[in-house]
Amino acid sequence: MRRPGLSVRLKLTLSYAGFLAVAGGLLLAVVWGFLLRYVPDNSQGLLGIAPNRYLLVRTFAPAAALAMLFLLVFGLVGGWILAGRMLAPLTRITAAARLAAWGSLSHRIRMEGRRDEFRELADAFDTMLGELESHVSEQRRFAANASHELRTPLAISQTLLDVARKDPTRDRDELLARLQAVNTRAIGLTEALLLLSRSDRGTFRRARVDLSLVAEEAAETLLPLAEQRGITLDVIGGETWTTGSEELLLRMVTNLVQNAVVHNLPTGGTVTVHIETRGDTSVLCVENTGHPLPPDLVPTLVEPFQRGTERARTDEHAGVGLGLAIVQSIVRAHDGILDLAPRPAGGLLVTVLLPATARPLESGG
């Protein structure tokens, strides 16, 4: 534990007073040295009418001591007042920091006046509090939603088991099928939460990845689902290299393509995956047809467990509302940008911008 020390205000006060005393002492020394050197040191004084050095010293010394005492007292009082005024903004910042430490993140300093170092510090602290409040609120909302989503399959399983125990004649195969479906959904949700946590931490190995190959693999995996729904799935583009985790990038593209297939027209829809390199940026675009989306709904689709009232489904591909949230988390972990825009004719255009990297050199045999 650190020992208590002098306050900053007291240190500044002593510094101001000490500086003023030193300056006054130097001034008196200059007067003393340059004035008295021209005064003769004899009994007659200067021209027999002026006082001699001895008398001037006896007259000047008490006045100099009183002047130094006045400067010291003035420096202490004035320094204390001046230091208090200078440190007043710091006191407000300290009070806001204590409130934040106690859990109150809604408080803001909102310092007035012209921009100086303290004003910049206060504004930066307000910005930090805003970001922290938003992050904490998002985490609390995420924890509540995750708890609710995980509780639902467990509650359903418990209900099915209770029914089976009370009704031994109930069809066992039907019960097992429903329990398996509920358990599969719970496992999928748990894996999605783990993947989201992993991508948020950014703890993964990075390597050169060709997004075109990743897109083709994701499209090949989801092609049976697209054909089942009567949707045309196309992948366009050549080699597009970036740096990151191939597993996470594959999950990102798979989520985007699956989302585009599931949330599409009942029949005759299309999904187009376009990959290209634009300068130092690797671009992945997933565009699908579908029903028109309200512009104010689109930004909320990347929030965890947000399915959107216009896009919620009840079939086996409804998901748990983490698809685009995982995509956004993976994009952020790869220092990229995710953009969602509604298409005028209906559907969604998702654009992922990732840092491009050079194509790896071919190893010769």
Structure description:
- The structure is a single chain.
- With 365 residues, this protein is of the alpha+beta class.
- The protein contains seven helices and seven strands; from the N terminus they run ααααβαββαββαββ.
- It starts with 7 loop residues before the first helix and ends in a 10-residue tail after the last strand.
- The relative contact order is 0.07.
Widest sheet: strand ordering: 2-4-5-7-6
Mean pLDDT: 81
Q: Which outline best applies?
A: elongated
Kindly name the structural category: alpha+beta
> How many helical stretches?
7
The main sheet comes to: 5 strands, mixed
Separation, N- and C-terminal Cα atoms? 64 Å
The gyration radius over C-alpha positions equals 38 Å
User: Regions with pLDDT < 50 over 5+ consecutive residues?
Assistant: 308-318
Total beta-strand segments: 7
Share of residues in strands: 5-15%
Order of helices and strands: HHHHEHEEHEEHEE
- Helical percent range? 55-70%
